[in-house]
Amino acid sequence: MEAQVRGGYFKRILEVDLSLRKSRVLELSDRFILKYIGGRGFGAKLVWDNLRPGLDPLGPENIVVVAPGPLTGLFLPAAGKTSLVSISPATGIYADSNVGGMFGVELRQAGYDALVIRGRAEKLSYIWIDNGTVEIVVNEDLKGKGSLETEGMIRRQIGDQMVKIATIGPAGENLVRIACITADWGRNAGRTGMGAIFGSKNLKAIAVRGARDLPVYDVKLLKELSDRAFEGLKKHPYFEFWQRQGLMSVVDYLNHAGVLPTYNYRDGHFDRADKINGYVMEERYKIGDTACFGCPMSCGKINLVKEGKYAGTVVEGPEYETACMFGSNLGVDNFAFILKANALCDELGVDTISAGNLIGLLIEGYETGILKLADIDGMALHWGDEESILALVEKTARREGVGNVLADGAKRVLEKWPGLKPIISEVKGLEQSAYDGRATISMALAYATSDIGAHHARAWTVGKELEMGADWGIEEKVNLVIYHQQARPVFDMLGVCRLPWIELGFSELHYPEFYRAVTGVSMPIEDMFRRSDDLYNLTRLINISRGATSKDDYPPERAFTLPIQTGPQAGKVIDRAQYEEMIQLYYKKRGWDKSGVPPASLKHQFSDKLNE
Ligand code: SF4
Predict the structure, then answer these.
(1) Which residue ranges make up each domain of the chain?
(2) Strand 12-17 relative to strand 114-118, pairing
(3) Residue 100 Cα: closest atom of ligand 1
(4) How many angstroms separate the alpha carbon of residue 365 from the centre of ligand 1?
(5) C-alpha distances in angstroms, 3 versus 7, 35, 218, 446?
(6) What is the mean pLDDT of residues 268-275?
(7) What is the pLDDT of residues 554-584, one digit of tens each?
(8) pTM here?
(9) Which residues surround ligand 1 with Cβ inside 6 Å?
(10) How far is the CA of 291 from the centre of ligand 1 (A)?
(11) Among the CATH numbers 3.40.50.11690, 3.60.9.10, 3.40.50.1000, 3.20.20.140, which is that of 12-209?
């Protein structure tokens, strides 16, 4: 008999149709809940159900699912995450991106396990969810406004400073395929172009207010478990340092390891990394810390530039990826500039990883003569060219000149300039994140087999592979990638942050215990991993139905052809034959055929309904 779900869910999804200006509530069965768990699991299933031939990611027929998880908003370590799930306008395949802060918590408190948005509003609007009331509010005054300004305007219009808001900036409105969604003044769902999907729907923002208690099956047990978990985290030797620097602590680690993307991923070592690291931030710029809901790790850093030409810039950030992509990857050693670029991207609503990646590509493309001055609006680009870099961010968000090319993302940049193929760093059309894969072949495999393209959050294997060195063969590395791809979706399905697990050794075995206390359901970690594998199969099927093939399961060409230039990993490059062996082993372990296709019978597994 199926277990009964006695907490953790409202068992309701809110669906808003912007074309019809209507909303309705869809009921969820316990069977559905236990199969897909929540967050990214719910999102992928709803996207699968909505697939149809020729679906245009920027058409009204595409949906975007906003899905926290059953643990989001509870007093557990780092339980403030929400997934946004759709079909990407940048890559054309399955897409998700997650955001922390408070937004998803408030959505849950309004009484919903997820929100599905379909259709297209006639005029620029925002969705206003006030507990059980849903309104589509037309507000054309928001047109062209930055993300942070929009939050303020909507709060003033509603007359409630506590409303939680997720919004796009001008980039999303302009259908920039690398546009992000920003919540809570600077937390971003950055990857895969979610901002453009909002823009295509004439949806400027979602505002939420919720006052309901979250359903918990055994409050006493949950409190005991979470007290223990918080204590354990705080005792970790790295905890205090993490609180001080957050993800910025990674700059030095990666540079010393020789895998810090530098000069458009040409190199893995930046000789001026000490000018853009966590210590520089701490000593000269940091004015405060911030955290997602209930998170003691508070990795958000508020920074202020006090002097110089960027004086007055204040921003939540940078995270490591932004510091790398606008620092070493562009040959910049000025931390104040990185803060300025971060603030600009946030206000315009542009993903910092994609933007830094593509701008680096442009600089190298020009330097190597692949691109001519006429291609890049007459800007004689060079490494560390701060003024031009900021101009390119603006041009991208506004689709001006060469920015109109960058705005369409890596896939279309390559279509326009195929000559850039040897120097571009992307997989499946998604710009690669800020970790070099040449010295760690497992990371290259992780990028290549990620269901959304070259994003590190699917599997981050760099640390472990470097630690194991020559002791590990191909099989251990494949196992490592699959293990990460199993573990990480569990966090996204539950609506929690993976960073305690990655950075502070927080055991994944905590989560079945939390889940049992919250829902009354025993689901061992092996069962959670099985559901996670199912999710990977489901997103693989979505991608295949969208035209993806095994040809898309390769790291960027540069990973095979250009050795790392300097630093401790100098000379490292991926051996093609070894990679071929690895990808075949990966498919085999996944239970897919030699072309990376899951068994046909799996499709039936996902034909179920929400409420049966
Ligand atoms: Fe948010 Fe950072 Fe805590 Fe994760 S570790 S929940 S990103 S504050």
Answers:
(1) 12-209
(2) parallel
(3) 1
(4) 36
(5) 12, 11, 16, 35
(6) 98
(7) 999 999 999 999 999 999 999 999 999 999 9
(8) 0.97
(9) 78, 80, 100, 291-292, 295, 297-300, 497, 499
(10) 6
(11) 3.60.9.10
